[in-house]
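Slide 14.
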Amino acid sequence: MATAKRNRNDEIYYRSIFNKYDRDGSGTIDAQELATMLREDAEVSDKIVRKLIVYSDRNNDGKINVDEFTNMVLDTKLKSVFGQYVTSYVDYVVPKSKRHRFKPIGRSATATTQDGFTEPDGAYETGYTLWPPPLCMVLMSICEIICFVLNNHIKNDDSKQYQDAFQPVALALIYHPRRRHEAWRYFTYMFVHIGWAHLIMNLICQICLGLPLELRNRWWRVLTVYVAGVACGSLTTSIFDPHVFLAGASGGVYAIITAHLANIAINWSEMTFPAIQLFIMSLLIICDVAFAVHNRYLSGDQTPIGYAAHVGGALAGLLVGIWVLKNVEPTNREKYLWWAAFLIFLLLIGTAILLNVFWTAHFSSTTY
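Slide 15: predicted structure.
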């Protein structure tokens, strides 16, 4: 191993990291503890963890002591091989209150204070990455645009009111209350939009709010939240508004909005300005709710908006976001919150599915 030069400040700094993850106080970090440390910043495989252990374990006891740990982090050869896992982590793992004079290594994200100390930025923010590219919401938006264009290109003059909803593409994809047995409609209605304004508003929201989540949480987590919001939006509508034809991606959009609240809740201590982010997201939700209430009850607007889908999507985004989005440093309280959100979501969506399947009297009595 090529041992790098180190000074007293380096030793103090890296010892604080070592102690943080020596969970059992044994004076060594085993493979499980090292995996826990690294996986807070990247999707690290067990193979990578084993290689790190073998490479850094000079006394061949299968574990890493504090000296081996410090050498591992400072080793320039190791940095070139595993730098994306190690250096991106050590830049911010120590809480801000524990400041030390040190020279950052690797991809540094630090700020210098007036007293000459350097301290890591928020652990959450330094985990943003452009790889893999955040294309999920972009590709979803492209699909919605293509469906909208195709739907409006094939004209059908039989219906004059809300004509866009009765074109061939829309008829095949829209949530139709009389065709609840066609299960795909609980999802595919998100590709159908009534008018350019409806489409553009959803595209702006899902791209502007979805991309920041993708940059930190990977595409599959954001897609899970989005699809869960779409499905819960249609299920909620079928129960509370069973006569409504449903179109648009608003269920998924609202899920993305409230997923930001879930993200703030589970990463509050690791974010640089969580209160500001919470204020902005809360203000956005309050303004949208106020606008919806005004339109429905005060302005006399008769536009058939599926508010039940908005509520269902928002609830899904909050619950699914808690147990799908990445928690930088889970606490015991957040672990309990994870299980609570997971079980509540399973209970709610399971109940909604069962009602849709077996509560036939509710739907047969509905007039269209």
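Speaker note: The two ends are 75 Å apart (CA to CA).
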